Amino acid sequence: MTDALPDPLIALRPWEAPEVTSWGRLPMNAVDRRAGAVSLDGDWRFQLLPAPDAPVGEGWSSAYVPGVWTMQGTDDLPRYLNVRMPFAQFPPAVPAADPTGVYERAVDVPAEWAGRRIVLQVGAAESVLLVHVDGLPVGISKDSHLAAEFDLSGVVRPGERTTVRLTVVKWSDASHIEDQDQWWHGGITRSVLLYATDPLYLADVTVRARRDGDLRVDCLVRDSGGALPEGWYVSGELDGQLLTQDAEFDRANAEDERVSGFLGEARLRAAVPDVRTWTAETPELYGLTVRLHRADGTVADRSHHRIGFRDVEITGRDLLVNGERVFIRGVNRHDFHPLTGRTVSYDDMRADLVLLKRFGFNAIRTAHYPNDPALYDLADELGFYVVDEADIESHDHAHEIADDPRYLGAFVDRVARMVLRDKNHPSVIIWSLGNESDYGANHDAAAGWVRRHDPTRPVQYEGAAKRGWADPGLASDIACPMYAPLQDCLAHAMSGTQTKPLIQCEYSHAMGNSNGTLADHWAAIEATPGLQGGFIWEFWDHGILQRVNDGRPAGRGGAGLYGNGVAAPGHRWAYGGDFGETDHDGAFIADGVVFPDRTPKPVMFEHREIAAPVRIECFRHEGVVLSNHQHFRGLDWLSGEWQLALADGGTLTAPAELPDLRPGETAAVPLPFELPEDGGEAWLTLRVTTSRDEPWAPRGTVVCLPQVRLRHASPVKHAPVTHRAVEVDEDGLLIHPLLTAGPTLSLWRAPTDNDELGGMAARWRDWGLDALTRKVVAVRREPGRVAVVADHLGPGGAVRHEQVFTAVEGGLLVEECAELPETLDDVARVGSVFETVAGLNLLEWFGQGPWESYPDRGAGAPVGHHSLPVDELFTPYLRPQESGGRHGVRRFTLSAPDATGLAVRLDRPRQVSVTRHRAADLASAAHHDELVSRAGCVVHIDAAHRGLGTASCGPDTFASYLVPAGVHRWSWTLRVL
Ligand code: IPT
């Protein structure tokens, strides 16, 4: 290509022309051409220009396709900003400095493609794609998360080598409507391929498969020569059953004078008897093959589809799938990978969905753009309801753009192309017009297009729902708010004015140690007609694997350099600000239910239990009542085991026979055990596992652990012994062979992201809770007993703390009382903290577990006997914060390998944490790799611990989970093992 001549694709400056959505691009369609195509993935010649109109030089490096150059060793690094654009220009303008990647490679066009129609498909490129072949301008495309196809038939010669150049401009008018909350990258993020068809080809196939077995397949046929040849016809087959051509349709077409010889339309039909319907619980798929024939019967083109028979409708305020009001247990999912940034493989996507299935999720919102096509195939196959979202987010300039006619075409184009591509997926049940783009005429235009083109699915758009959840506008059939307080949802459902299903498009923000009150939300959703669920924000923590020494993304070379949520030594999970940017949104990018390596966070176990298909409703008359909480399935795919955990005994197990229950049914089953007289507090757990291999879980995978208490604890009596001395030092601090510090009063925790962004942490710092001054007021010594009174002073007020240490049979009783003045209402915790000698590395406890739990996120952690190495108790949230807590702990031992150590018994179930870090250690670190573990343990026993809530984006925890001012009392015994 001679760069001296003005290139029309450059001269047009399409990167600042929102009216130009494409040029030379083929219409989107639902015919999958991946099979039989030539893959152009791999290393391409590459150079990064400072601007799209800068001359292409001689110096080429290489870049891997699909991939973003921001993760492949260039100086243009990833950048994280949420709402704000990374540049000041007003739409549609962009900065003059505009990184532009030029990808080039030679392609050998197969000789056997002579006479065929040859098409180039670029899976996705952000944000403007310019295509040249052998120096000739071929096309332009925008819409960074959908494929662009270009007809190369007249441009390339089969049997010869050709040069394909893909120029990708990073900043454009389109960036202003791709302002999603994620890393900014540049590059080609999905596969590139070349394929050939007969000149007579299937231009599109539209499948309508209803739950009564009625199947309709509409075929669109074109010929690249122009007019269609005489006598073409289509045939189809569904798992061996032949479809019939709809003669009525053909006759109407033949008589319709508007229909020309250039556009072929045909309809195939079938009535499938005893159809196996598709739902997320029962993802039954049928194989459909459509063939396009020439007049002589030979096959010119064919298209394969895996289809599902199902209906989606809204009746009143219920969203129905196959007539059932299904609960939407959803999550928002981005295309993310810690090594590639944006490019995800089939195996990655499958692993995402398999994990979500195992933790009880049944729905995905493709936040905030159409995902890789394979994701929808997997959602069809594994069973997910999908809200398919168009690539439109104009967040920073939302108001200006929503009504800007220059962007009208882009809005309609993006929504229409998504619908055209994904319309045949049974998993897609709702179309979304995009995210956070205010609401304007451009949205209504897009909604109008969808309603005409696909009347079989509802449309949603949060920006429109903002106008009022019952607003009858064109753009949203669903009341789909984000982060709405539960009481507002309940009030709406009970107001009598509700007209649409209420399904939150985002709720329960998973940033750091979060997702408090999730179980309360679900208790309300399940109990309240009109509430149907929502989508947790979000699946991933988007931490990029980064080398600490040079600050570069590890890239594809970092494979395997992480595990269990943690980056390998010398690496860390980068978030906003870690690539040298001064203007960024920090750790707000780390707000998922899984770590960057897909390790589940503790909230996943909470969710699994909330979504339990089998529940224990109650315990009565020596039996338990079980229920089936699914919508479509029986219990035959599940097995059970009873576990009886006795506080003062071990755990007894017995096989469980699950009753044959249809959805919604209950049955009483006899208690499998005689409850021993002397076991103390007793809990019965039904350990439910898969009874056979499921596509997403091998046989024996835990599905849920419903639990019921059979007997309460009886009060513990302590027998004081006066002959044993209790010693405290001159500061009134306990002297104990196993303790190196404390126990003292603790009112503070290392702020969680919710504490920071919700403003609590600042208040706690203002009150001085992180550094209270302890002043001993009195020490009273008696035989076998010492009482210590100390004041803890800070700018927020004085807290009086009393400790009475009493020698009792077998150990030491510690009785404590703290009096918080009214000024200190809503602190992080009230409790004791102490530190132990080194070597006590195993925690065994009776209480909730085994995973981390908190007062408002403890529904999924069953009570039982648990044990974990201390180092495994801690959850490595990307930005260190309060972590590793266990709720409802009744007693624990902390021991060395030789079984020496200490034992603690609490007056009642309490929040306990055992870690290697003081709260101050955690609060002063910005990344997990900066933490240095202490040799001993830092142990917190809390009389009260503040709930986690979700205040980093959304509602705080409920009042009942706050730690109020006033008097708090707690006691515990300490025994040496
Ligand atoms: C909402 C966004 O839709 C989502 O992309 C993400 O940013 C989320 O919040 C927070 O992590 S928008 C917000 C302004 C409520």
From TrEMBL:
Keywords: Glycosidase, Hydrolase. It is an enzyme of class 3 (hydrolase). The keyword Hydrolase applies. It catalyses: Hydrolysis of terminal non-reducing beta-D-galactose residues in beta-D-galactosides. Residues 720-975 form the Beta galactosidase small chain/ domain. It holds the Pfam family Glyco_hydro_2_N. This is Beta-galactosidase. It comes from Streptomyces chartreusis NRRL 3882.
